[in-house]
Amino acid sequence: MPQQPRSSDFEANLQLDIIPPPANQTPVNVLVFFHGLGDTKHSFARLAQQLKMPETVCICLQAPSPLPFDLGGFHWGDDITFDQSAETMDYDTGFEKSCRIIRREIIEKVLIGKCQYKAREILFFGFGQGGMAAIAATLHFKDELGGVVSIGGPLPSSFLNTKGDERKNQTPVAVLGGASRSLITQSALTNLKRVFQVIEYVKWPREGDGMPRNREEMLPVMKFLARRLRSRSGVPEDATEII
Asked: N or C: which end of the chain has fewer CB within 10 A?
């Protein structure tokens, strides 16, 4: 039986919040949150507390690099570049540093190594650049993870040259975005389908890729998580789980 991770299990330089499951339940799943560009761990910590996912411990990571010029917030990229025409920061600047931290320090060393979770019991949830980081990190694992939810986060460009005949990643991915002004375009979906075996796409009837604004928009996310999260409630201790 896996054990709930504690802050002391992780390296001191890692910034994260741990939200335990409700009612002192034993966590059999881990849901890892990746905030958007320029945000912090706190926004998703509030979301995790509101979700109250049964038998699931939530870990809200803070991206490793602060934004420059005292802009506040953090980012997941290897670099920071600015789009002069749009006066915005580029989302897609490489994710090797973040993926190395996620894979080695978070997943392999602590969740799998210390806490004895299986890869299938670990899920990712990311928004914007955080969704891209979650997708990139997933592609660094050969084993199937529990699943990935990416809101407005397409496949990073560093994976676009992946050969179509290579074995596709088996981790199911739910990707969500708006009907217009969205990064989840038809070509973005095609790119995701080239590297992942299972892609579920939800197009909200609105503009942009913001976080879900109401129950209707959140429902596809909850349905996906409900299918992928495991449960031992009501199961006898000597029962055998069939996978």
From this structure: C
